[in-house]
Amino acid sequence: MFPYPAHMQANPEVDALVEAWIDHLIEAGGQTVIMPTDDNAFDAIELPATVTPTKKPPNKRQRQVSSTADFSTDLDIDPTPRPSCRHQGHYALSETTELSGTAGTDVSASTSVSASASRASQQSGRSSPRKKEAALRRARDWPIARVQLAKLRTIPPVLERLAVGLQTIADGAQPLIPDLFRPSMEADTGFLNQPRPAWFYPARGPEHDPMRLFASHSYIQRIHRNSLQCRDIMDYEPAWNGLVHARILEEALEGCDSVCFRDLTVCRTKKKYHDGDPALRENKVDYGIFLQPRSEGFTASADRSADNYGLAELLADLAGEDVDITHCTLSDLAPTPLAVSIETKTPQANTVEGSVQLASWVRAHFRQLAKVVERRGHDPASHPLPILPIIFVQGNIWRVDFAHRCDAKTMIYEGIVVGDTHTLYGCYQACAAVRLLATWVQADFQAWWLRAARPESLSI
Fold it and tell me: Helix, strand, coil % (nearest 5) of the chain?
């Protein structure tokens, strides 16, 4: 029973409502903060600021209130997470309003508040992948339009060379494996799945180091076994990432000094590049392939209009002017442009979700690249944004799509399956596809950045 001043009469019904409401909040966990609705509500009642539950039993999650609790303001320090005070204050304000207007209502009022709180806690604020896809297609700025590459009669010129090269790898007729390993592969493979002669190339001459070839082949065999193991035990995405996907990227980019890959699972898009639609504001991907240009050793007084003025120096200048080099925050804030985005899912995951994540992510990437063009004073018509390869990996299947801004839309050209890590040759295919993309990063993508990063007034 609450202590009332001498000039006020106790109201048992109100007491019962308040005590029942407090009990519900205590069961939810944490202290209770009571906030009156106005300056006159309960101004004469000395209500306690907090309600402290007794220390819970070691193996029970529900807090219990001792019958001898004195409603002191001392808080019980407990490692179990509690609901935030902001939410508790919201519910307390709602309930106090109801009590002040309907002092004789039933105890069910407090139950409805608790049910509302429970429903609110179950809402994650994230819409389904299908709703996000619909929102992407209806977006005001640069909406998504998807096209299957196989259905195109002609390929956009900026895409033709890279797409044809990837399709050649995907067709399975390109020699990717040294012929040193053909006998062992024929011995280890079943009668119906014998390796094709077209898969192998002659590994002869001084440019082919047998020791390095054996080390690489052994590593790819390990990736293949890991992929089969993840399939057999239906492993989670982190296991696929660590045992298969990251190792494919590591093997493929070995020796590429100016291209690297990074884990982006904890990186988020910067708020300035979020979409206006709340359902599309923030997304993430698993990996990114980055252009990592080498410094040419120019001094601060070097001529920035010179053709040989390095990209590393131009990127450093941009970063010094608070121009973003990437649309996400890297751990070391390195001025290294993102070239290829990679999203991974398990075989059992929803395919739509991964495609939606990549589409939303790449739209933010285009916004950041457009900002670079704008800040350097270039005309967008004469400096179009580059085409961006994106990779979607679902379990063992590697698929390369392309994103391109064209005719006020963000076109997604999809459909080149470049590898299957459940087969040894498929692992070689995935590595070869990533190497081809790395070659594109070093050539076409770097050339775009060299033009875009140089101020228009210094361009030749």
Answer: 45, 15, 45
Smallest Cα–Cα separation from 389: which of 376, 379, 402, 378?
Answer: 402
Q: Whole-angstrom Cα distance, residue 18 to residue 64?
A: 17
Quick check: helix, strand or coil at residue 205? Answer: coil
Q: Classify 161 as helix, strand or coil.
A: helix
Is residue 371 classed exposed, middle or buried when 0-12, 13-18 and 19+ CB atoms within 10 A define those classes? middle
H/E element, 406: strand 397-406
Q: Which residues 6+ apart lie within 8 Å of 120 measured at CB?
A: 87
65-97 per-position pLDDT tens digit:
444 444 344 444 444 443 444 433 333 333 333
Which 3 state secondary structure label does DSSP give 328?
A: strand
354-412 pLDDT tens trace = 999 999 999 999 999 999 999 999 999 889 999 999 999 999 999 999 999 999 999 99
Bridge pairing between strands 409-420 and 144-148:
parallel
Dihedral angle computed from the Cα positions of residues 55, 59, 65 and 70, in that order, rounded to the nearest 10 degrees? -10
State how far the Cα of 303 lies from the Cα of 429, in Å rounded to an integer.
43
Alpha helices in 29-156 (DSSP H): 85-101, 108-122, 129-137
pLDDT tens-digit profile of 149-206? 988 888 888 899 999 999 999 999 899 999 999 999 999 988 888 999 999 999 988 8
Classify burial at 233, counting beta carbons within 10 Å of its beta carbon; exposed 0-12, middle 13-18, buried 19 or more: exposed
Q: What are the structural domain ranges in the chain?
A: 12-122, 129-458
Q: How far is 453 from 460, CA to CA, in rounded Å?
A: 13
Q: Residue written as tokens 């884990």?
A: 263
Question: What pLDDT, in 10s, does the model give residues 24-73?
Answer: 545 544 444 444 444 444 444 444 444 454 555 555 444 444 444 443 44
Distant-in-sequence, close-in-space partners of 377: CB < 8 Å, separation ≥ 6:
455, 456, 457
